[in-house]
Amino acid sequence: MNALLANKVAIVYGGGGAIGGACARVFAREGARVFLAGRTESKLRAVANDIAAAGGRADVKTLDVFDEAAVRAHADEVATQAGAIDVMLNAIGISHVQGKSFLETTLAEFEAPITATARAQFIPAQAVAHHMARQKRGVILTLTTPGGRLAGKGFLANGVFSAATETFSRLIAAELGGHGIRTVTLRPDVIPDAVEKSGCREVFEAVSKRVGIPVHAMIQEHGLKSTLLGRLPRLDEVAEFAAFAASDRAGAMTGAIANLTCGSLTD
Prior knowledge:
Layout: E1 9-13, H1 18-29, E2 33-38, H2 41-53, E3 57-62, H3 68-82, E4 87-90, H4 107-135, E5 138-143, H5 156-176, E6 181-188, H6 192-197, H7 201-211, H8 215-226, H9 235-246, E7 256-260
Parallel strand pairs: 1-2, 1-4, 2-3, 4-5, 5-6, 6-7
């Protein structure tokens, strides 16, 4: 069977992170030439080295996703160098305060991550979409959390920016579908091995302090009691699905939210 992404060109923003790096490794294994972008060169290089050691090809660019000019220039460079941009995954993580109640949360704590997320979604999506529109093909993948669908306490900003990401992806699907561009949002629940490998552990530690349960035990309990499968998703499962969604075999899928929660949400 042919590789899922043979001869494809993929940009992964946040490619040095746990989720972005895992997806980038699978993209490369499935035949894509991968361009890793993010702020921390050492993390990007580590992923690129893994890809090269496995026989793949990855390029590294340090940039700030909030720098619109830099992101556009990088997309232009990739398109010129590789001849196309077929896939974009936005795996940028936004730091935010979690664990506080609505009454304790300041306007700045609420507003900042929502504004940052909106910018972090818009800038790279538009940068690659210009090239994809000229090609009449492309796939834009975004990441979200179940927070936009849950009624709970202590994750107000997370819930709002998660819902905003899902809506953004759905609406640009309508804008870009006529250009042959698909959009898919990946919605995993907490990914235990990603928490251990990334800075998002700090977010869970804030919640952990609020509820008085250690982070590991809190996550484990959530997986056991809140999901239909009695466990939480793994990094490899999310990465494998991302590669499928980016491939031509998922060609009928757009404006969609992929439920990768192991059943903590059921639609």
